[in-house]
Amino acid sequence: MFTGRKLPLTLAFAVFTGLAFGVSCNGFFVDPTLTSIAISPLTPQVEQGKTLQLAVFGTYDDGSRKQIKSGISWSTDPTNIVSIDPKTSIMTGLNTGTTTLSADVQALPATATATVFVVITGLTISPLNPSANQGDTVDFTIKDQNNNNVSNLSHVVAQQNGTNVSTIACSFDDVNNAQACQIDASASTGLYTIVATYPGFNGNVTTNLTVTAP
Predict the structure, then answer these.
(1) pTM (2 decimals)?
(2) What fold is seen in the domain 34-117?
(3) Angle at CA 136, nearest 5°, toward 132 and 142?
(4) Mean pLDDT taken over the chain
């Protein structure tokens, strides 16, 4: 009788041991922890009245990265430039301008800068071929084909031989409604090309800037 029950008992013990081992091992494989998030694209651009799909990607403590599709809280500042559907993360362009997008997942934040533009067919820049001293600031006004000032949505860089330079930094000046290009005191004297682009416009507009010693 004892010999007849030995095999079933052995099998039962093996099954129990296997289950216990599986539970024990499973405890070592925990879900990775979310450590940071990022918005994609980082500088989204959308035409006024149109939509653009945004995405949020998470980085985890095991080095993996994947898209997050739920549990995202969105906000914008200012609030009247775009709207974002909280369920689909689809952004709609409401009014021309720029706004900061903020996403939050599990108390982890991420930001991006969104631009809403209107389609234009031409650009102009003024003044043409100015001169300025090292350390000076030159304001450039960018207008569309209808003579509307679009400096606030334009991107302006200074170049030499087709390469962007860091010694002339351009940014929008809302007081003068122009792109203010600050010439560093260490900038080399000579001829620079000022290049202006506009979201959704296929091309650019340029002018020359001559930098002189004070």
Answers:
(1) 0.76
(2) Immunoglobulin-like (2.60.40)
(3) 75
(4) 90
